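thread from #wetlab-drylab

HS: before we spend reagent money on co-crystallization trials with zinc ion, can we at least see a predicted complex? here's what I'd submit
DV: go for it
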Amino acid sequence: MKCLLLIDIQVGFCPGGNLAVTEGDAVVPVANRLMAEGGYDLVVASQDWHPADHGSFASQHPGAAPFTMGELNGKPQMMWPDHCVQGTHDADFHPDLAMGAVDHVQRKGMNRLVDSYSAFRDNDRDAVTGLADWLRARGVSILDICGLATDYCVRFSALDAREMLPGVTVRFVADASRGITPEGVADAEAEMRAAGIAVVQAADLIAAD
Ligand code: VGL
Ligand code: ZN
């Protein structure tokens, strides 16, 4: 079973959103093409889904500026602008994303005391979301991961997939992903490769099918 995992392709991470990634919306047509022509048996979309008082928001820490390091529950935490608040337009999937082809939505980031970059578990590696069990139960053996942002949620989702789903081939689809900083993207790609995650392009996957 071959599965495509779309990470956080939401309004908030696209131009105009509260935590906009440069060219974030450019992943939408590529993701749609992968869903239509990639030969996947299953498609999962993750959704960053924060309460309004989430502890990763700079607004919850008096004096903290967005995009600086702070602390959450005693651990280092990037201070983000308020983003993807539950029930707001910012948390919606991008309006052009072909959600009709998505089999399962995995929400994350609901616990205000810990951030959850990965679609599989919280950053403290304590609570899991249930996605690993969901994929295991369906016999997934190939997992292709892409979306937003490469240097945060895509990276940690791919690394967790490698660790939590032994034996599953995990690939990162670079041109169906965008990151917050170029350095962060370079680091993420190096870390993913070192962990045994192949870096591929959408065209390779469509041609190979
Ligand atoms: C993300 C920062 C905070 C992401 C989510 O989707 O990459 N980044 N929340
Ligand atoms: Zn978030």
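DV: Residues 48, 50, 56, 83-84, 109 surround zinc ion (ligand 2) (CB under 6 Å).
HS: ok that's useful, forwarding to the group
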